[in-house]
Amino acid sequence: MAFFVGRDREARRAYGFDEIALVPGALTVNPEEVDITTRIGPLNLEIPFLASAMDGVVDARFAIAMGKLGGLAVLNLDGIHSRYENVDEVYEKIAAAPPESATELVQKLYKEPVKEKLIAQRVKEIKAGKVKAALSCIPQNAEKFCGIAEEAGADLFVIQSTVASVRHIATKYKVVDLKKLVKSAKIPIVAGNTVNFDACLELFETGIAGLLIGVGPGAACTSRGVLGIGVPQVTATVDCSAARDFYFKRTGRYVSIITDGGMNIGGEICKAFASGADAVMVGSAFARSKEAPGRGYHWGMATPHHNLPRGTRIHVGTTGTLEEILYGPARTDDGTQNLVGALRTCMGTVGAMNIKELQQTEIVIAPAIQHEGKIFQKAQRVGMGK
């Protein structure tokens, strides 16, 4: 439905996670019996969770831990991992830096040139843990980095920018031919980010296996404030999922929709799947884990996706181990732990046996859901009342 924001100027209403709720089903299912597996191209994942490609979130050890728990962590190749042999030493310097000088330090560290041999080394470190290796870079580096990662044994490559498009006009630099790159790669490619139905269809035609959805919602993303650009994640995911389904009916090829950003708690993640996501990419929730190399920070936004000065450090604190965050038992009441349990319980409550059925669950517009009847939570400063 369109609304007028002024004389003869229409604007479409868009919705975020706080403005909707999911309706319980007439049929309910034992949460332990629902199927939460997903696929991205040829890759099968036990849980539909990806960890964001941020230096403060993912290193080789975190990628192994995430893989052993059934998910997939994406390593950032535009940050410290492709610049420094001893990343532990770099992490220690950043962790020890006072807040007033930390960002400047990280920015200085990012001036070190990329060493291509380290790309293959990082892949081998992750693969040594007997898990899938996924890596990410900006479009300008994609052709070179993807080839090196593929040869080293990577399982998935992510090409990420603020807004991805097939038709990009530029005279100052070479435009990446995404279709050519995808065709030449022997591993599946995920691209992003976008929020647009038509842009999705054009990106699908390149042969990508998955598409990241989200412009403006992430904790580290300033697109809405700096550029005025972005679409709330519920509407963005619904629109892009509709493009996926339309494309699948037309071609028979399924491209996974991965909602990226704006999700910190279980309820938001459940709503992303109900909006049509096949998987979610999460940053802040995993940056809080004890396994995250950033020790409660995330930084290293070398890609323009976050619209922050290179190396900006953001504090998110720590809330528990990665296993607690994914599988519990929850030691907090704010929804930041036992994310897999939350997803399973949600699916059981709405009567969804698998992710595809959850994508069809009934959604209602419910802007009061965050505070309706929460007087005791507010008084005790627990749950949504914090």
Q: Give, in spatial order, the strands making up the sheet with the most strands.
A: 6-7-8-9-10-11-12-13
Question: Into which percent range does the helicity of residues fall?
Answer: 25-40%
Shape: globular
Number of domains: 1
For the secondary structure, the number of strands is: 16
Biggest pleated-sheet summary: 8 strands, parallel, barrel
What CATH architecture do you see?
A: Alpha-Beta Barrel
Overall pLDDT, averaged?
Answer: 89
Radius of gyration: 20 Å
Task: Report strand %.
Answer: 15-25%
Structure class: alpha/beta
Number of DSSP helical runs: 15
CATH homologous superfamily annotation:
Aldolase class I
The CATH topology is TIM Barrel
Distance between the termini: 34 Å
Tell me what you see in this structure.
Helix content is 35%, strand content 16%. By secondary structure, the chain is of the alpha/beta class. The protein has a single domain (41-343, 362-375), classed as TIM Barrel (Alpha-Beta Barrel), CATH 3.20.20.70. The strands form 5 sheets. It has an 8-stranded parallel β-barrel with strand order 6-7-8-9-10-11-12-13, surrounded by 5 helices. It has a two-stranded antiparallel ribbon with strand order 1-2. A two-stranded antiparallel ribbon has the order 3-16. Helix 1 runs parallel beside helix 4. The longest helix has 19 residues, at 233-251. The two termini are 34 Å apart.
